[in-house]
Amino acid sequence: MRVLTVNPGSSSLKLAVVDGGVVSAADHVAEWDGATRDELDDFAAAQPPVDAVSVRIVHGGRRRAPVVLDEDVLADLQRLVPLAPVHQPRSLTLARHARNLPAAVPVVGCFDTAFHADLPAHAATYALPRRWRDHYGLRRYGFHGLSLAHATRRTAEVLGRPLERLRLVCCHLGAGASVTAVVGGASVDTSMGFTPLEGVAMATRCGSIDPGIPLYLVREHGLAPSDVESALNVDSGLAGLSGTSGDIREVRRARARGDPDAALALDVYLHRLRREIAAQAVSTVEPDAVVLTGGVAEHQPELRAELFAESLLGVEVDADRNRGTGDRLISAQSSRTAAVLVTCQEELELARSGESVLADPPTHAPTSSPAIGRSIR
């Protein structure tokens, strides 16, 4: 089956055609404004006919599996825009556009949240009033599921062990970043939560902060909630700390020039990341490996070495392996815990998910989205 995969990010767009599990064509729009669809039109027109289109959708609410997108499903997913305001509108815009491509093939929505659908109750539940949790659907959803599904599968192959017997701490490090505990191939805890804002510090997102801070800014200083939301999503993280850029390469270069704000930004970033890795290790009981994936993890060997400089979880980085290529071990033989680097290939998981839903369509409607906007009874 030939599947056109559509992977919109917060500032980029990745397109690919996957034929029988192999990428036969690909395009990466590094700077994408989220509004234009010309890139999708041009890429699709240049390819041989495909059998399906698979679109990455960050927030699927309580949906547990990919689904063929129709107007009812799209309307339901639209209600989740407030939970992922940077990503969800872009995904839905492209999904709607894909349904009108000349090829007229099924368009499948693949959800980053689905990987975490079976989080244990103690990991998924916030310490909030039950009436809020029940009526507003407040729970930890988790994200980066497509990346994690591929990374965990490849890690098992790299280690030569069954995934069902592995305990992993998986770090997706890109513009967005999250850390997830995976036991036997299943997510048992994760750093992102109800929205993609929670967790470690990211390129432009704040990660976890005292929830009293936004309340204080709105109540005592009159900031508009929309301005606070925007600042937490696009003006925080590395960008807010460094005062210059959310691009970790730029921040590292600024640190090398002696910029103290850049140095602090990287110190905060690495501290929060190490702390979250240690926390997720607790949820695995004792991890067999730490897995690194995502653009930042893949292209920054110096950052990888710095992350494990203090032998975090007993990981000792092997300098030669760290500067190698491909999916591989980067830890030394003497390490107590292995470290594995996996190239992020969400397009393969998108294709796999699309094929699975078309080969075995669901016999009942998926669970609807949380009750966003519904009043408390």
From TrEMBL:
Cofactor binding note from Swiss-Prot or TrEMBL: Mg(2+). Can also accept Mn(2+).
Subunit comment: Homodimer.
Entry EC number(s): 2.7.2.1
Residue numbers binding Mg(2+): E346
PANTHER family xrefs: ACETATE KINASE, ACETATE KINASE-RELATED
Site-annotated residues for Transition state stabilizer: H144, R205
Catalysed reactions listed for this entry: acetate + ATP = acetyl phosphate + ADP
Gene Ontology MF terms: acetate kinase activity; ATP binding; magnesium ion binding
EC top class, as a word: transferase
Species in which this protein is naturally found: Saccharomonospora azurea NA-128
HAMAP family the record matches: Acetate_kinase
Pathway this chain belongs to: Metabolic intermediate biosynthesis; acetyl-CoA biosynthesis; acetyl-CoA from acetate: step 1/2
Protein residues bound to substrate: R56
Pfam families reported for this sequence: Acetate_kinase
SUPFAM superfamilies registered for this protein in UniProt: Actin-like ATPase domain
This protein's name: Acetate kinase
